[in-house]
UniProtKB/TrEMBL annotation:
The protein's name: Predicted dehydrogenase
Domain Gfo/Idh/MocA-like oxidoreductase N-terminal intervals: 2-134
Record InterPro entries: Gfo/Idh/MocA-like_OxRdtase_N, Gfo/Idh/MocA_oxidrdct_glycsds, GFO_IDH_MocA-like_dom, NAD(P)-bd_dom_sf
Keywords: Oxidoreductase
Residue span, GFO/IDH/MocA-like oxidoreductase domain: 144-265
GO molecular function: nucleotide binding; oxidoreductase activity
Length: 340
């Protein structure tokens, strides 16, 4: 039985909590034994809802060992791994502490605020011979996995162009409003746009250069609207955009549109549609589970079977941070091309 401690039960932490409850109910060999959160009110089910439904029900916290101090939990609990769903600026510190205690680490995206912090996390994992995985959930999302397979197999020929977008209302639900503080979240680029930066990295590799225009709307929050062009040697036209000031009744959206030599693949409004140039459109038959469930299950299986973290290796997710930092540098300089 794999024993886990969950650190942080804010918006994303509750999504992870729901999946541990589900996995245990399904008989999967994992047991959530401890939960830590600095805000003890959360243990009384006092939460603010987020922009997507990742876990908003009432929980029975009596079955877990509860902590408000990370060091105390790491000292007292005999855990196989910790699942870190803390604010971004705390990722590196918490991960390194756990790794140095001999625990494996699953950490929410983004990996950290800087490449140097990412390197320190990897060094701690390697020094202690522990596994480290960043929960870049789209790598486990069926619709994005399908796109990855199309790219790698040239099912519809080479990629000509790709467009990626996500956006929604301003995130006002975070503890002490950390999401809207640039020095703690990195703004929309590192918190929300990072999903599509990671997809572009995973699908196409590191671009030769990036050019980003971005705008700050909310004082102190960093960039709230972003549009990036990714330059590749073969000339494919890749763009990703994000906007987290789409308020009112807009809701939340994530989509992609990738054009190949022999067709195009479009994902929007929760539906994947494949449009071959010389045939009828179709919707592929895909797994029903979402990326949150599948990434946790993948990590636990890697621990049980002692297999490498290939889908989301820490080196790959560190490269995602390097690309995002280049985007910020470009935006800071009016969209100038920044080489990678």
């Amino acid at each position: 039985m794999v024993k886990v401690g969950l650190i942080g039960i804010g918006f994303m932490g509750r999504g992870h909590l729901d999946n541990y409850i589900r996995l245990e109910a399904e008989g999967f060999p994992v047991k959530l034994v401890a939960i830590c959160d600095i805000d003890k009110d959360k243990f009384e089910n006092k939460f603010l809802p987020g922009n997507i439904n990742v876990g908003n029900k009432k929980y029975d916290f009596s079955k877990y060992n509860l902590y408000t101090d990370i060091d105390e939990m790491l000292e007292n609990e005999d855990l196989d791994y910790v699942d870190i769903t803390l604010p971004t600026y705390l990722h590196a510190e918490a991960a390194i502490k756990a790794l140095n205690k001999g625990m494996h680490v699953l950490c929410e995206k983004p990996m950290a605020l800087t490449v140097d912090e990412c390197k320190a996390m990897i060094e701690a994992a390697e020094k202690n011979n522990r596994k480290l995985m960043i929960a870049q959930c789209l790598r486990f999302w069926p619709e994005y996995e399908y796109l990855k397979e199309c790219v790698e197999t040239n099912r519809f020929g080479k990629v000509l162009a790709g467009y990626f977008f996500r956006g929604g209302g301003t995130p006002k639900w975070s503890y002490q409003n950390w999401l809207l503080q640039k020095d703690k979240s990195g703004g929309a680029i590192l918190d929300q746009h990072i999903h599509d930066v990671d997809m572009i990295n995973w699908l196409f590799g590191t671009p030769k250069a990036v050019s980003t225009i971005a705008k700050n709307v909310i004082p102190g929050s960093g960039y709230d609207i972003v549009s990036t062009r990714y330059i590749y040697e073969d000339g494919k036209v890749i763009t990703a955009e994000d906007d987290w000031v789409l308020n009112g009744e807009y809701g939340f959206s994530m989509l992609y549109r990738v054009n190949f030599e022999k067709g195009n693949v479009v994902y929007e409004k929760g539906t994947l549609k494949v449009n071959p140039n010389d045939g009828k459109s179709f919707t592929p038959d895909l797994p029903k589970e979402n990326g949150y469930y599948r990434e946790i299950k993948y990590f636990i299986n890697a621990l049980i079977n002692d297999t490498p973290i290939d889908v989301a290796s820490p080196y790959s997710t560190m490269e995602t941070i390097r690309i995002a930092q280049a985007e910020i540098e470009s935006a800071d300089n009016g969209g100038k091309f920044v080489e990678l």
